[in-house]
Each structure stands twice: as C-alpha cells, then as structure tokens.
Amino acid sequence: MPMQPLPFRQQDPAAPAYRRGWVDEAVAAIEADQCRTADTHLIRLIVPALAGIDIYLKDESTHPTGSLKHRLARSLFLYALCNGHIREGTPVIEASSGSTAVSEAYFAQMIDVPFYAVMPRTTSAEKIAAIEHYGGNCHLIDDGRALYAEAAALAARLNGHYMDQFTFAERATDWRGNNNIAESIFTQLKGEPRPVPDWIVMGAGTGGTSATIGRYLRYRQYPTRLCVADVEHSAFFDCFRNQDRTQVCERPSLIEGVGRPRCEPSFVPGVVDRMMKIPDAATIAAMNLLTRRLRRAVGGSTGTNFLTLCRLASEMRNAGETGSLVTLICDSGERYRQTYYEPQWLAARGLDPAPYEAELSAFLETGKPLSFTIADVANPQNSRGDG
C-alpha cells in the first residue's frame, strides 16, 4: 500500500500563503525519516585472490526508496524548505531519469505536496511504477536533451518549484559531516584492519555525491583518493580531462543514474583525483559478476563502480600494495530486469559483456591482472607532493 502522508494541520483560509508552522512540521517529518534510516550497511566482499586488499561496498539499495538518491532527495527537500522554496501545497517538479524522482516522490508524499517527474520516455517501467506508487506524476518526453527546459517550463505553468538536482545537489548536502555518506563510511570503517581507504570510487550522475566525498576527504585531511567513474555517452570524463565545462555529448547514456549529456553544475572536478570512463559492456559484465557474488541483483551504475574498483585493485596488486577500497551499491537490479538483465535488450544495443566478464572473473578468482583498455586520467593538480 502507498505510504500515507503525515496528518498536517489543515490550511486556514485566512492564513497567509507562507505558514511557518507547516514548514516546521515538514522539516521535522523528513528529519524523523533520517533518524529511522540514516545508515546503510557496509559490506566487506571477501576475495581470497586479493589477500591484503580489502573491498567494501556501501549498500545504498537498502534505503526506503531503494537507492543512493534517497540521501540526495532528503537533502534537496530540506534545502528547498529551509530556503522558502516549498510551502504548503507547492507543486515540486524534477528532471530525472528515475531514481531521484522515486525518492523525491516519497518525500513529497510524506509532506503532502504534489510531485511531477519530467523524464525520458525510455525510463524503465519499474521506475515509473515506483514513482506512481508514491503518488508522483510522470511527465514523459521524447527528447532527453529537452529535460531541463521542460522541467523548468512545467514548474512555471504549475506555479511550482523546480528542484533542479543537477544544480543544487552539491550545495544541498552538508559535506562537513552531519552523517553524510562520507562520514558514514569512515565511521563504519573504524574497526576494520585498514580503516582509512586508499580509494573511494563513485560514479557521476549529478556530481553531488562525488563533490560531498571529495570535500569531506579534504576537510578531514584524509589521504584517501577519490576516483570518479564515468560511462559512455557522458560529458563528465571529457570535462575533467580537458578542463572544459562546455563539453557535451549528443547521445544519452544507457546506464541509468550515471552519465550526463553535459557537465552538470554540481560536478566539482577540483576534488576528484582520477577519472575512468567505463565501456557499457564492461559495466554490464561487472554488474553480472557482482550479482552472482552477492546472490542478489544490483543495478547498472553499481557495475560501473565495481569495474572501476577492480581496476584499482588490479593496479595495487601488481605494485605489491595493500590497502582498502570502497564503492557503492547504488540500487537494486530488480528495477532493470527488462533492460540490463535481458539478453535481447543488450543484443539490440550491440552490448556483449562476455569478454569483459571472463577477464574480470579470472581476476577475482586468481588475481590475474586486468588487461582491457579503459580511458583513464589523473588530476595533476591534486598531487600532494609527498612522493
């Protein structure tokens, strides 16, 4: 059954349009959700062939709405409420390929405001159903390049608030702490053999989570490095490599949740130590392999993260280094049964994960170095000068 909204007081017809009491109640309701669901599991993946290299997976799929975007949606709603953008009855509009919209629909229902998700028509049926389950409205468009403009136009027509995750993701989250995802990772690692990871791997969707992690590492003066994984048909990697935010990509990414046609305002290249651009077929291969090892399905963006982590682990093993690596399980694979887990869907798009899957499997079973080529660039400005 859909979640019932909290029993907010009825609007007094004589009251002004802005009622502070309603905002207080809305913020309290969202904060209560955070207290109930603040932390997610940090799973250690046991790989005997990589003795001395510890692999951890922060499982964001266990949030109430099933993905990493639950954190972002919570932060965006609190930011909009506390800045006076959302008031009682204000329609909320978002441009989203799916998971953010699912999470925002959840919070909109919680505080009893209308929600509209503007998304490409190609968004998975499972995500559309999830948005509608939480009372959201799906506004589907054919041209993904018009996503931002259509969301802004719909907000104007409805006299609503355009949440604009791609602009506000990096500023809505408290990167200094307050149980953000970076602080949560380090807290959970305290009792581990190697509590300060060598690398944290994060895909780029809005850019907000990588910005939070990168800033937190600097704020807390950790030596941990941040590697951001990008995908095919996405502008982030070229933006980082060429130091040019005007980079664009005409084709949409096939991997939902990561990859964007432009370098989004929330992407902060200066806090990123290294980037890799992962072929879509390699993403699917890593997704399949991790699904078998965990005995439960993970989503495509998790495959992107895991392939990148394995490349770093391969480098460390070749160099005789020990240490720990952390990445995210972004969401469950149940939302992608008709796409990434469907052979006909993959074949229609020319994706053959088998060669990548065989090599990755050999690496995890025997430690045999990974040899396939991945576009890779480091940020020379982030060298600490300590050799």
From TrEMBL:
E.C. number(s) listed in UniProt: 4.4.1.1
Q: Which cofactor does it need?
A: pyridoxal 5'-phosphate
Q: Which reaction does it catalyse?
A: L-cysteine + H2O = hydrogen sulfide + pyruvate + NH4(+) + H(+)
Q: Name one Pfam family in it.
A: PALP
| Key word Ribonucleoprotein present | no
Q: Which UniProt keywords apply?
A: Cytoplasm, Lyase, Pyridoxal phosphate
Positions of post-translational N6-(pyridoxal phosphate)lysine modification: K69
Show where the Tryptophan synthase beta chain-like PALP domain sits: 40-331
Q: Which Gene3D superfamilies match?
A: 3.40.50.1100
Q: Which family does it belong to?
A: Belongs to the cysteine synthase/cystathionine beta-synthase family. Cds1 subfamily.
Q: Which HAMAP family match?
A: Cds1 (MF_00868)
Protein's job: A cysteine desulfhydrase that generates hydrogen sulfide, H(2)S. The H(2)S produced by this enzyme may modulate central metabolism.
User: What protein does this entry describe?
Assistant: L-cysteine desulfhydrase Cds1
Please give the organism: Bradyrhizobium iriomotense
Q: Name the gene.
A: cds1
